[in-house]
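Comment thread on ticket #2218

A.B. wrote:
> Attaching the input chain for the structure job we discussed in standup.
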Amino acid sequence: MKEFYKKITTHGIRRRLFTLTAVGILIYSSNAHAVIVVASQEQAPKYAVAARFSFFVATNSGSVNAFPKIKILFTTFRVWGGRPGDPADYMIETNIYSSRWTYHDYAYPARGLEGVETYDEASIRIATHDVNGQTGCKTFAPAVFPRQSYNVDGIPGLYKTDMMCQANLNGQTGTVEISRGPIITDKSGWKHDSALPDDVIFRQWNVAVTFNGKRHDMAIALPAEHSRYLCYNEMPSISTEFMGNNGAFSVYYWGFEYLRERSDHWEPVAAWTVICAGTLPGSTPAGARVVRWRGRYVLEISNTAYLSKGVRFLIP
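C.D. wrote:
> Ran it. Output below, let me know if you need it in another format.
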């Protein structure tokens, strides 16, 4: 087993380690409430150029009485350059939160987040970390998914851009599709204060979120050298934070599929592994399980104890 160390911090809790194992990249959270599942590496292609999935926010209540007052499901797709030794530093996040923020495009607070946060109303956030100033975001639906770039946890030089859904997604079904786009020729408008760096070639990755019958398009700019494909080690991972706190939060996932380069055939991601499962004494455990809902099998992530660490399972 070979360990790598990443300095990634998110919403007040330091996320320190990821480990390359036989089943994929796992991200540990220092918050002991975490549950992490990954798509098993054996079935994932090394040269995928698109992925998609569906979700449903089944339960979201009571977090307003917790501390902190949020729960998070990090749903992460990592990208890589398609060659041995590529650091796979860049990510496309499609995270689901138990709260939502209301703000304008393009917000850029000095630190932290800007706007009004409403608890117990779920949102999805399309996001990427600003690695060495070499990322950017555009939204083509600014009223629904405005951008906000902010300093993470007051750490000097650590920034992130989120495009946060302004709608309350409680009880809503949605789909997410990620697809590789072209090399970027117009570098303006991708960052809050400047264009993308002139000395780096960037590739566009497209993200579309559909709910209530409407499609909302966004794009993320990443260095082309390190973002040729979706990374087979993390396509995707789902990890949690703050799920051990008071309040109920349950999200269903299904329809995970990927598209290989030079193919028009979507292939299912059925095999999964629970990499981490645990909680603090006296708090509510978080977990994953497969349940049948509306005539289909779905992956449920919620703050109830389910599958144990090391369990491999299928989503039929």
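A.B. wrote:
> Thanks. Noting for the ticket: The first strand starts at residue 2 and ends at 10.
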